[in-house]
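Worked example 2:
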Amino acid sequence: MKNLHQHQLIKVSIVEDHPMVISGLTNMLAPFEHIKIISHFSNGQDLLQELAKAQPDVILMDVMMPGMQGPELAREVKRIYPQIKILAVTSLDTPGQIRSMMQHGCSGYLLKNTDQNILLEAIEQVHAGEEYIEPALKEQMIQRLIQFKEKSHPETYPGKVVLTRREKEILQLITEEFTNQEIADKLFISPHTVDNHRISLLNKMQAKNTAGLVRKALEQGLVK
């Protein structure tokens, strides 16, 4: 399957105070001709100075850095250059950090140990105006949310949820027992994108697993 933006150059800057991480990200992206790393910085102040001269399409940004921290830097970048997309790449996996970065202007959140395919897809998706949370992190956040809701409102059952057209398509195929790869092939999207939608559906439907998702979808008449 072809990448949506393989013929469209995506200029990337990296803000990270560990040279080994910069090297690792650079090496992971090197095979992709449509991804061009135009600059890298060890702190936010240097990034802001350089942005006055040239702007990337996407910034890969650490959360904890010397001087200006990730949330503050993300907010400042988006205030001055709202067209730039920001993708947090960090070792911090707490819901509070994820929420803070997303609320301050980030379009995506990845862990530093992410794999090459997820890194590429995240860059392409945020560049296209979408949001991207590393699947493992999203699953972790959803499970914590479900546990919290069960403790707070053990008898609460959600009303009929509102789904996007794409979510309805994927939900229907899930109930028909198609795998992520089969759904991806049918809809001409990547398996990672399918997985993101699946996790989003679990969250919206407050289901713990696929079986629960299918049951609630049938109960609410969301699938045929």
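Residues 1-6, 152-158 have pLDDT under 50 and may be disordered. The beta strands are 10-15, 35-41, 58-61, 85-90, 108-111, 132-133.
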